[in-house]
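Q&A log
Question type: sequence-to-structure
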Amino acid sequence: MKENYRKMKKKTVKAFTLVEMLIVLLIISVLMLLFVPNLSKQKAAVDEKGKAAVVKVVESQMELYEMNHDTKPNLNQLVSEGYITQKQADTYGKAK
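Response status: OK
Response body:
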């Protein structure tokens, strides 16, 4: 009987306690609360910069068209002749 008890006692496995797991979860949740709002602000800034870049591209393509054809183009002419894509024209229209 004593031998069985000793064998069972030696087979115990060390593991995390519930308190340790709760502390780890608390630390992770605090870090999430700090970083998630910052990420959403960064997304808005990236969207603004992307729209500004599209505006610059479309305006440069307008200048190129004007140099080639000696007339000021509209967005439909730029799209139809392949200077810009329809998506760029839509973004330019929303940004302006």
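Response note: The two ends are 86 Å apart (CA to CA).
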